[in-house]
Amino acid sequence: MNWIKEYQARLSSPEAILDCYISNNMSIMVGGMFSAVALLQPLLRRIEDGLYYGIEMFGSSLDGPYDFANLKCSPNQFKLHSFFAGVNERSGFSNPCIQPFPMKYSNLDRIMAKIKPDLVIAMVTPPDDEGYVNLGVNGMIASALPFCTHAVAQVNSKLPRCKGGIMRHHISEFDAFVENDQELYTYPLPTITPEDEMIAGFVAERISDGACIQLGIGTIPNAIGRGLRSHEHLGVFSEMISDIMLELMETGVIDNSRKTLMPGITAGGFAMGSTREFYSTLSRRDDIEILPFSKICDIPTIASHDNFVSVNSALSVDLTGQVCAESIGSRYYSGAGGQLDFMTGAQLSKNGQSFIALKSAAHTKHGLVSRIVPTLEPGSVITTPRTCVQNIATEYGCVDLSLCSARERAERLISISHPAFREQLAHDARKCGYLS
pTM score > 0.70 for this model? Predict the structure, then answer.
């Protein structure tokens, strides 16, 4: 138990940690969701007060009471490079201090090796009986720790202790700790619409028993998960572990018994649920592991699973099959995440397949707008190129584009577009030369 004295010696206050470990012209990795609010909030206040300049912060979907849109500082003082935008970053992109950082999650280790963060600010569990803390439900920080100069952490007793060797770190790997309990982020389960259920039906019927699946967040992935309730022996190797996955594990639909890699284990890069009970369940189960993003999104690792099925979403798809999942025109909305990694890995998997699932149209202040478009709006980010796309599903059907000519792609995509736009899409396709 010698570690106890060492841990107590490293306990400090947020102010003392900032005084000791923050200086000008630093690079700081703060990870993804479940950020260390007890340290980041006072750090941002100090930046606004002009105490630091040249702070470069790297993170993804930071939850917490951060008002990035109204952060009162200049880009010379502070920049947050966002790998993937959550609500806080999305509203904050109006501020030049908050900047999208395009990347694939499979490259995270290589990016951290190049950045070599001066400091990692993490959230961890209290130490166990051997003096090891746990990084909890997000594998992003795990990719930065081997490359950082210093590491500090907020100790949160509400954080689940997740399985996965890379998540367990001895207290000696951190320079300082502050103890501060913080409620974990929960998101309300979205209401599933009839359109979502129709899309889910087209996708679920194409998923065989024994498949290994990857699902994202939102109404459509949740509906697809519900559509898999009658399946058997499914496995999970997914960027995200969600409520529906735990439900399918509890009912035995997901048992990971036929996984080629890590049989018996549900593997994810992070976990996010709608209730406190969701996080408690993660701590109790020995068959769930959190892996670093560079591992969970690694294309050869994904491809090593037989019968792998990847399901991702999009904001718009053009008639050539290009997928925009990150922006509305030039306005950034999210990030690349692991979409291209999983789609590529799934198609390299034995009997694998990938899906892009989206509603055919969006309800906007300008009325109904088609999400299948002749050409992407200027400034749109191409998340997945047309050469890497296989199945596209809307509430009007599911089409396979992988063996289609350019003309056939346009025809098939128009066939699953909203009926109100099909005539115009065909007209525009002829103007573009896609159809004769």
Answer: yes
